[in-house]
Design a protein that fits this description.
A hairpin with a 5-residue loop joins strand 3 and strand 4 (about 45-60). This protein has one helix at about 60-70; strands at about 5-15, 20, 25-40, 45-60, 75-85, 95-105, 125. It is mostly beta strands. Helix content is about 5%, strand content about 45%. The termini are far apart.
Length: about 160
Amino acid sequence: MANLNRVMLIGNLTRDPEIKYTPKGTAIAAFGLAVNRNYSTETGEKREEVTFVDLEAYGRVAEIIGEYCKKGRPLFVEGRLKLDTWDDKQSGQKRSKMKVVVENMQLLGGREGGPGGGGSGGSSEYADSQASPPPQRRAPSHAPRPPADPDLDAAPDDIPF
C-alpha cells in the first residue's frame, strides 16, 4: 500500500527561529507558524480560526530560516509530519507532539520581511538541505556566442513561418 506524508502551509512566524547545532555542525531551526482560516457561519457571521504549528528544519534550510526569518514574517513551507514521543520526567507519563519537518520553503512578503502582500521582492525557494542563499542581482553577462553554422543557425527574420 502506498503512503504519503506531505504538508504545505502558509502562515506567519510566531517567534524568532531558535538555531542550534549538532556536534557534527548540522544546523537545526525550531520555530512556530500561525496558520489562519477565515470562514462564515450558517448565520453569515465571519470568523477566523488560528492553528499554531511547531516546525523544525535541518541543514542549509535551517541556516537560511535563522538568517532571514523573524517573528511575524510570512512563510510558505513544504515538509512532512513527525511525531516526537518522550517520557515526562515529572509525571512519568508518555508524552507526544506532532511537528512538521521543513524540506522546502519560500520566503514571502517584502525584502525586509514585514508582513507584506506576498510580493516577490526578496523571495526565494530552497529545496531540501542542499539549498543556497538568495541569488544576488548581477549585471547581465554578454558571453561571446560560438560561431554560427550557416546551415543550422538562421536569424529569426529568415525563418519562413
